[in-house]
Protein backbone atom coordinates (compact mmCIF):
# COMPACT_ATOMS: atom_id res chain seq x y z
CA UNK A 1 0.00 0.00 0.00
CA UNK A 2 2.82 2.40 0.93
CA UNK A 3 4.59 1.57 -2.32
CA UNK A 4 1.42 2.30 -4.31
CA UNK A 5 1.00 5.62 -2.51
CA UNK A 6 4.62 6.60 -3.21
CA UNK A 7 4.18 5.69 -6.88
CA UNK A 8 1.07 7.89 -7.04
CA UNK A 9 2.93 10.81 -5.46
CA UNK A 10 5.80 10.34 -7.92
CA UNK A 11 3.42 10.26 -10.90
CA UNK A 12 1.58 13.35 -9.65
CA UNK A 13 4.87 15.24 -9.36
CA UNK A 14 5.80 14.14 -12.90
CA UNK A 15 2.43 15.34 -14.21
CA UNK A 16 2.86 18.74 -12.53
CA UNK A 17 6.44 19.02 -13.83
CA UNK A 18 5.31 18.12 -17.36
CA UNK A 19 2.56 20.75 -17.25
CA UNK A 20 5.03 23.41 -16.06
CA UNK A 21 7.51 22.55 -18.83
CA UNK A 22 4.76 22.68 -21.46
CA UNK A 23 3.31 25.95 -20.13
CA UNK A 24 6.60 27.76 -20.73
CA UNK A 25 7.07 26.31 -24.24
CA UNK A 26 5.84 29.49 -25.97
CA UNK A 27 9.05 31.24 -24.87
CA UNK A 28 11.14 28.88 -27.03
CA UNK A 29 10.22 30.93 -30.09
CA UNK A 30 10.22 34.44 -28.70
CA UNK A 31 10.27 37.04 -31.48
CA UNK A 32 10.15 34.16 -34.01
CA UNK A 33 13.63 32.96 -33.05
CA UNK A 34 14.53 29.80 -31.15
CA UNK A 35 15.82 30.71 -27.70
CA UNK A 36 16.68 28.29 -24.90
CA UNK A 37 17.57 31.16 -22.56
CA UNK A 38 14.13 32.80 -22.86
CA UNK A 39 12.55 29.38 -22.23
CA UNK A 40 14.61 28.85 -19.06
CA UNK A 41 13.72 32.36 -17.90
CA UNK A 42 10.02 31.75 -18.54
CA UNK A 43 10.22 28.39 -16.80
CA UNK A 44 11.70 30.04 -13.71
CA UNK A 45 8.94 32.68 -13.71
CA UNK A 46 6.19 30.06 -13.98
CA UNK A 47 7.68 27.98 -11.18
CA UNK A 48 8.11 31.04 -8.98
CA UNK A 49 4.53 32.23 -9.54
CA UNK A 50 3.10 28.78 -8.84
CA UNK A 51 4.78 28.79 -5.43
CA UNK A 52 2.42 31.63 -4.49
CA UNK A 53 -0.84 30.73 -6.29
CA UNK A 54 -2.89 33.12 -4.11
CA UNK A 55 -0.98 36.02 -5.67
CA UNK A 56 -1.62 35.05 -9.30
CA UNK A 57 -3.56 37.63 -11.29
CA UNK A 58 -5.24 37.72 -14.69
CA UNK A 59 -6.06 40.72 -16.88
CA UNK A 60 -9.36 41.18 -18.68
CA UNK A 61 -8.47 41.28 -22.42
CA UNK A 62 -11.05 44.02 -23.09
CA UNK A 63 -10.80 46.34 -20.08
CA UNK A 64 -7.25 45.41 -18.97
CA UNK A 65 -8.52 45.33 -15.38
CA UNK A 66 -6.43 42.95 -13.25
CA UNK A 67 -8.03 40.59 -10.75
CA UNK A 68 -6.94 37.78 -8.46
CA UNK A 69 -6.96 34.35 -10.14
CA UNK A 70 -8.62 32.75 -7.12
CA UNK A 71 -11.46 32.12 -6.43
CA UNK A 72 -12.61 32.83 -10.02
CA UNK A 73 -10.58 29.89 -11.37
CA UNK A 74 -12.29 27.54 -8.92
CA UNK A 75 -15.70 28.66 -10.21
CA UNK A 76 -14.60 27.85 -13.76
CA UNK A 77 -13.21 24.51 -12.54
CA UNK A 78 -16.50 23.68 -10.80
CA UNK A 79 -18.49 24.29 -13.99
CA UNK A 80 -16.20 22.11 -16.11
CA UNK A 81 -15.89 19.25 -13.65
CA UNK A 82 -19.68 19.06 -13.17
CA UNK A 83 -20.23 18.86 -16.92
CA UNK A 84 -17.46 16.30 -17.33
CA UNK A 85 -18.49 13.82 -14.63
CA UNK A 86 -22.23 14.21 -15.24
CA UNK A 87 -21.62 13.38 -18.91
CA UNK A 88 -19.72 10.20 -17.92
CA UNK A 89 -22.63 9.08 -15.69
CA UNK A 90 -25.13 9.82 -18.49
CA UNK A 91 -22.97 8.02 -21.06
CA UNK A 92 -22.78 4.87 -18.91
CA UNK A 93 -26.53 4.96 -18.18
CA UNK A 94 -27.46 5.38 -21.87
CA UNK A 95 -25.03 2.66 -23.00
CA UNK A 96 -26.48 0.17 -20.49
CA UNK A 97 -30.05 1.03 -21.59
CA UNK A 98 -29.03 0.48 -25.23
CA UNK A 99 -27.46 -2.80 -24.19
CA UNK A 100 -30.74 -3.94 -22.59
CA UNK A 101 -32.62 -3.09 -25.79
CA UNK A 102 -29.96 -4.81 -27.85
CA UNK A 103 -30.38 -8.12 -26.05
CA UNK A 104 -34.16 -7.83 -25.74
CA UNK A 105 -35.11 -7.70 -29.42
CA UNK A 106 -34.52 -9.60 -32.65
CA UNK A 107 -31.62 -9.46 -35.09
CA UNK A 108 -33.20 -6.70 -37.21
CA UNK A 109 -33.42 -4.40 -34.17
CA UNK A 110 -29.87 -5.32 -33.16
CA UNK A 111 -28.62 -4.43 -36.62
CA UNK A 112 -30.49 -1.10 -36.43
CA UNK A 113 -28.90 -0.17 -33.08
CA UNK A 114 -25.43 -1.09 -34.32
CA UNK A 115 -25.93 0.99 -37.48
CA UNK A 116 -27.14 3.94 -35.37
CA UNK A 117 -24.12 3.55 -33.10
CA UNK A 118 -21.74 3.57 -36.06
CA UNK A 119 -23.50 6.57 -37.64
CA UNK A 120 -23.50 8.70 -34.47
CA UNK A 121 -19.91 7.74 -33.69
CA UNK A 122 -18.79 9.03 -37.08
CA UNK A 123 -20.45 12.44 -36.69
CA UNK A 124 -18.21 15.49 -36.04
CA UNK A 125 -18.32 16.74 -32.46
CA UNK A 126 -19.42 20.24 -33.41
CA UNK A 127 -22.32 18.82 -35.47
CA UNK A 128 -23.71 17.04 -32.40
CA UNK A 129 -23.43 20.23 -30.30
CA UNK A 130 -25.22 22.38 -32.89
CA UNK A 131 -27.84 19.66 -33.49
CA UNK A 132 -28.63 19.53 -29.75
CA UNK A 133 -29.13 23.30 -29.66
CA UNK A 134 -31.28 23.31 -32.82
CA UNK A 135 -33.43 20.48 -31.45
CA UNK A 136 -34.23 22.48 -28.29
CA UNK A 137 -34.98 25.60 -30.39
CA UNK A 138 -37.23 23.61 -32.77
CA UNK A 139 -39.18 22.06 -29.87
CA UNK A 140 -39.61 25.50 -28.29
CA UNK A 141 -40.99 26.93 -31.56
CA UNK A 142 -43.40 24.01 -31.93
CA UNK A 143 -44.70 23.89 -28.35
CA UNK A 144 -43.68 27.12 -26.65
CA UNK A 145 -41.95 25.04 -23.97
CA UNK A 146 -38.25 25.57 -23.32
CA UNK A 147 -37.05 22.12 -22.30
CA UNK A 148 -33.68 23.30 -21.08
CA UNK A 149 -31.48 26.42 -21.08
CA UNK A 150 -29.46 26.73 -24.29
CA UNK A 151 -26.60 28.87 -23.06
CA UNK A 152 -25.18 30.44 -19.93
CA UNK A 153 -26.16 34.02 -19.12
CA UNK A 154 -24.25 35.83 -16.39
CA UNK A 155 -24.16 33.75 -13.21
CA UNK A 156 -26.77 31.32 -14.59
CA UNK A 157 -24.43 28.59 -15.86
CA UNK A 158 -26.01 25.95 -18.09
CA UNK A 159 -24.80 22.47 -17.13
CA UNK A 160 -27.31 19.82 -18.14
CA UNK A 161 -27.48 20.37 -21.92
CA UNK A 162 -23.67 20.57 -22.32
CA UNK A 163 -23.36 17.39 -20.24
CA UNK A 164 -25.97 15.60 -22.37
CA UNK A 165 -24.22 16.73 -25.54
CA UNK A 166 -20.79 15.72 -24.26
CA UNK A 167 -22.13 12.27 -23.29
CA UNK A 168 -23.36 11.32 -26.79
CA UNK A 169 -20.10 10.07 -28.31
CA UNK A 170 -18.86 8.32 -25.12
CA UNK A 171 -22.25 6.60 -24.77
CA UNK A 172 -21.98 4.98 -28.18
CA UNK A 173 -18.28 4.27 -27.60
CA UNK A 174 -19.20 2.45 -24.35
CA UNK A 175 -22.04 0.59 -26.07
CA UNK A 176 -19.93 -0.60 -29.01
CA UNK A 177 -17.14 -1.81 -26.74
CA UNK A 178 -19.58 -3.48 -24.34
CA UNK A 179 -20.96 -5.57 -27.21
CA UNK A 180 -17.45 -6.60 -28.18
CA UNK A 181 -16.44 -7.46 -24.60
CA UNK A 182 -19.66 -9.43 -23.99
CA UNK A 183 -18.95 -11.56 -27.04
CA UNK A 184 -15.51 -12.32 -25.62
CA UNK A 185 -17.01 -13.20 -22.21
CA UNK A 186 -19.82 -15.35 -23.61
CA UNK A 187 -17.74 -18.47 -24.15
CA UNK A 188 -15.97 -18.43 -20.79
CA UNK A 189 -16.52 -21.29 -18.29
CA UNK A 190 -18.24 -19.18 -15.61
CA UNK A 191 -20.96 -18.17 -18.12
CA UNK A 192 -21.58 -21.79 -19.11
CA UNK A 193 -21.68 -22.77 -15.42
CA UNK A 194 -24.23 -20.05 -14.65
CA UNK A 195 -26.36 -21.16 -17.61
CA UNK A 196 -26.26 -24.79 -16.45
CA UNK A 197 -27.61 -23.67 -13.06
CA UNK A 198 -30.70 -22.29 -14.79
CA UNK A 199 -29.97 -18.60 -14.33
CA UNK A 200 -31.78 -16.30 -16.75
CA UNK A 201 -29.99 -14.55 -19.60
CA UNK A 202 -30.31 -11.11 -18.01
CA UNK A 203 -29.15 -12.37 -14.61
CA UNK A 204 -25.99 -13.77 -16.17
CA UNK A 205 -25.52 -10.62 -18.24
CA UNK A 206 -25.94 -7.98 -15.52
CA UNK A 207 -24.83 -9.85 -12.40
CA UNK A 208 -21.89 -11.86 -13.67
CA UNK A 209 -20.75 -10.68 -17.11
CA UNK A 210 -21.27 -6.93 -16.71
CA UNK A 211 -18.75 -6.65 -13.88
CA UNK A 212 -15.99 -8.06 -16.11
CA UNK A 213 -17.16 -5.94 -19.03
CA UNK A 214 -16.95 -2.71 -16.98
CA UNK A 215 -13.45 -3.72 -15.86
CA UNK A 216 -12.42 -4.24 -19.49
CA UNK A 217 -14.02 -0.91 -20.40
CA UNK A 218 -11.97 0.87 -17.74
CA UNK A 219 -8.81 0.04 -19.68
CA UNK A 220 -10.03 2.56 -22.27
CA UNK A 221 -10.41 5.26 -19.60
CA UNK A 222 -7.56 7.43 -20.87
CA UNK A 223 -8.83 7.34 -24.43
CA UNK A 224 -12.36 8.31 -23.36
CA UNK A 225 -11.19 11.14 -21.10
CA UNK A 226 -8.89 12.63 -23.74
CA UNK A 227 -11.75 12.53 -26.25
CA UNK A 228 -14.07 14.30 -23.83
CA UNK A 229 -11.53 16.94 -22.80
CA UNK A 230 -10.85 17.77 -26.44
CA UNK A 231 -14.60 18.29 -26.96
CA UNK A 232 -15.02 20.30 -23.77
CA UNK A 233 -13.37 23.46 -25.16
CA UNK A 234 -15.67 23.61 -28.20
CA UNK A 235 -18.67 22.80 -26.05
CA UNK A 236 -17.97 25.47 -23.43
CA UNK A 237 -17.43 28.07 -26.14
CA UNK A 238 -20.66 27.27 -28.04
CA UNK A 239 -22.77 27.07 -24.87
CA UNK A 240 -21.10 30.19 -23.42
CA UNK A 241 -20.11 28.21 -20.32
CA UNK A 242 -17.61 29.86 -18.01
CA UNK A 243 -15.49 26.75 -17.61
CA UNK A 244 -11.87 25.85 -17.17
CA UNK A 245 -11.07 25.20 -20.84
CA UNK A 246 -12.77 28.41 -21.99
CA UNK A 247 -10.90 30.29 -19.25
CA UNK A 248 -7.62 28.84 -20.57
CA UNK A 249 -8.55 29.92 -24.09
CA UNK A 250 -9.20 33.51 -22.96
CA UNK A 251 -6.39 33.95 -20.42
CA UNK A 252 -3.36 32.09 -21.75
CA UNK A 253 -0.62 33.48 -19.53
CA UNK A 254 1.89 30.61 -18.89
CA UNK A 255 1.43 30.49 -15.11
CA UNK A 256 -2.37 30.62 -15.47
CA UNK A 257 -2.21 27.86 -18.09
CA UNK A 258 -0.13 25.74 -15.71
CA UNK A 259 -2.42 26.28 -12.71
CA UNK A 260 -5.61 25.61 -14.70
CA UNK A 261 -4.12 22.50 -16.32
CA UNK A 262 -3.06 21.12 -12.92
CA UNK A 263 -6.59 21.72 -11.60
CA UNK A 264 -8.05 19.92 -14.62
CA UNK A 265 -5.78 16.88 -14.86
CA UNK A 266 -5.14 16.01 -11.20
CA UNK A 267 -8.77 15.05 -10.35
CA UNK A 268 -8.96 12.95 -13.52
CA UNK A 269 -5.68 11.24 -12.65
CA UNK A 270 -6.89 10.51 -9.10
CA UNK A 271 -10.17 9.05 -10.41
CA UNK A 272 -8.26 6.79 -12.81
CA UNK A 273 -5.87 5.61 -10.07
CA UNK A 274 -8.78 4.86 -7.71
CA UNK A 275 -10.42 2.79 -10.46
CA UNK A 276 -7.11 1.01 -11.00
CA UNK A 277 -6.83 0.14 -7.30
CA UNK A 278 -10.46 -1.02 -7.07
CA UNK A 279 -10.10 -3.25 -10.14
CA UNK A 280 -6.81 -4.66 -8.87
CA UNK A 281 -8.48 -5.51 -5.54
CA UNK A 282 -11.51 -7.10 -7.23
CA UNK A 283 -9.57 -9.17 -9.77
CA UNK A 284 -6.34 -9.77 -7.86
CA UNK A 285 -4.38 -8.67 -10.92
CA UNK A 286 -2.09 -5.70 -11.31
CA UNK A 287 -3.26 -3.35 -14.03
CA UNK A 288 -2.20 -0.01 -15.43
CA UNK A 289 -4.69 2.58 -16.69
Automatic annotation (TrEMBL):
UniProt source species: Rossellomorea oryzaecorticis
Record keywords: Cell membrane, Membrane, Transmembrane, Transmembrane helix, Transport
Protein name: ABC transporter permease subunit
Membrane-spanning segments: 12-29, 83-104, 116-139, 159-179, 225-249, 256-279
Membrane topology: Multi-pass membrane protein
Taxon lineage: Bacteria, Bacillati, Bacillota, Bacilli, Bacillales
SUPFAM superfamilies membership: MetI-like (SSF161098)
Main location: membrane
Domain spans labelled ABC transmembrane type-1: 102-283
Signal peptide boundaries: none
Domain of life: Bacteria
Amino acid sequence: MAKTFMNMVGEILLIIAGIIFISAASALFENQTFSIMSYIKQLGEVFSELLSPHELIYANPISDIERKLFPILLLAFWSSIRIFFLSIVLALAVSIILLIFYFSFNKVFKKGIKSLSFFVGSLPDIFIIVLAQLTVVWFFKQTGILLIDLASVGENQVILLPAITLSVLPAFFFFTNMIQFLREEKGKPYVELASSKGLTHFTILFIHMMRNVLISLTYHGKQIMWMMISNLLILEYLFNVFGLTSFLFTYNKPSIFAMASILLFLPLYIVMKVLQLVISRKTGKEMSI
